[in-house]
Design goal:
Elements lengths: L2 E6 L3 H11 L5 E7 L2 H11 L3 E5 L7 H8 L7 E6 L2 H7 L6 E4 L4 H16 L1 H5 L9 E3 L5 E4 L2 E2 L5 H13 L1 E3 H8 L5 H21 L6 E6 L2 E6 L5 H15 L2 H10 L13 H25 L3 H14 L4 H13 L3 H19 L5 H11 L1
Parallel strand pairs: 1-2, 1-3, 3-4, 4-5
Antiparallel strand pairs: 6-7, 7-8, 9-11, 10-11
């Protein structure tokens, strides 16, 4: 095996030390060194080295930004970050593509990294052999979060990479400042920006490993990230289109099919602030769909079917008076007076516990009218 290596560091003693250690490793054909990161970026984009040892903190161009810029030109290059700061490594390099080393580089630690690289490159077919025949590409955000490629379920290195990909899928684009405010609010601007670029790098690496780089493109320009997908329709898009068309056509069967597509609230396990507005958008559409569907089934003399959707409405909005009354009315229509009375009692108790007030007079009067 013949492996080309490039080492980039703004300090020549560190470059010489790394080159000396690498020349003792198995399978290396050449070791090129650069102390100017911009010159190195131009060379790496053209030469596409197999492995890159990259200092994380350099003037003019940080190692994280370097990796971000190089990836589109040399996606097969394995990158090993090098840093003098252990704490920084713990934060940032958990997101790295391959590995990281602490300065001064320990020969035994370098050997461990190199053996990992050799193992990966000696069995390239193994990575592609894990695919699952018949799997299609899909993206699920309603309820559980799940991205599936032809190779199977995509596994993310970190929760932050998973969250950022979901954010970009939903919004399709966002400026660096906006993304930092929404997804990385706990970081100051400069450190957050590096963390953002590293996370994007990890997303691209994950998509490449999942053989999705041709279907999902994540680009960067003018301080703005943009995500484009071809031939992939996520579950939120399917639900939104199906619900809008079904309600427009007033088709009960189509509305039932659309309702079945809503398998839970958007990213229901994610507690970040940015997700609440997006979650509310799809939830309100689902409520509107259920309202129209329930009313349509009642008018079509199909109250037993309407009951299921009326129950869902009260579960989603337990303090909404109109939903409770509609379900009570359906219970009376389907000869279930005990359920109607039980629902009234439960709603009354919940209402008083939450608001501290008694039920409105109009609600009580309407309930009595329905029970006559």
């Amino acid at each position: 095996m013949s492996i080309s290596v490039m080492v980039i560091d703004d300090e020549w003693p560190a470059l010489d030390h790394m080159k000396e250690l690498l020349l003792q490793c198995e399978g290396i054909s050449s070791v090129q060194t650069y102390d100017n990161p911009r010159e190195a970026l131009a060379a790496a984009s053209e030469l596409k080295p197999d492995v890159l040892f990259l200092d994380i903190q350099m003037p003019e161009l940080s190692g994280l930004t370097f990796a971000e810029k190089l990836l589109p030109y040399s996606p097969d290059t394995d990158i090993v970050f090098v840093t003098a700061y252990r704490n920084y490594a713990v934060e940032a390099f958990d997101l790295s593509a391959m590995d990281y080393l602490l300065k001064p580089v320990d020969p035994s630690r370098l050997l461990k990294t190199w053996n990992k690289l050799l193992s990966k490159r000696l069995s390239p077919a193994a990575a592609g052999a894990t695919g699952t025949p018949g799997k299609t590409t899909s993206f699920r955000l309603l309820g559980d979060y799940e991205l599936t490629s032809p190779q199977g379920l995509v596994k993310w290195r970190t929760h932050k990479a998973q969250e950022l990909f979901a954010y970009l899928w939903i919004h399709r684009q966002g400026s660096v400042s906006l993304i930092l405010n929404d997804v990385f609010p706990q970081w100051n601007y400069e450190k957050g920006k590096q963390y953002l670029h590293t996370t994007v790098y990890q997303i691209r690496t994950t998509l490449k490993k999942a053989a999705l780089e041709d279907k999902i493109e994540l680009t960067f320009g003018r301080e703005n990230y943009r995500l484009e997908s071809g031939g992939i329709e996520g579950d939120i898009e399917k639900f939104q289109d199906a619900a809008a068309l079904a309600m427009q056509n007033s088709s009960l069967e189509d509305m039932q099919q659309a309702a079945a597509l809503y398998t839970g609230d958007l990213l229901q396990t994610l507690d970040s602030l940015w997700v609440y507005s997006a979650r509310d958008k799809y939830r309100r559409l689902y409520l509107k769909l259920l309202e129209q569907l329930t009313l349509g089934l009642v008018e079509a003399a199909r109250p037993n079917e309407a009951e299921d959707y009326a129950v869902r409405l009260t579960e989603l909005e337990p303090l909404e008076e109109s939903y409770a009354l509609r379900l009570i009315a359906i219970y009376y229509e389907t000869a279930k007076p005990l359920r109607a009375q039980r629902k009234f009692t439960q709603f009354s108790e919940s209402y008083i516990a939450e608001t501290g007030d008694a039920l409105p007079d109009w609600f009580v009067e309407e309930y009595r009218r329905l029970g006559r």
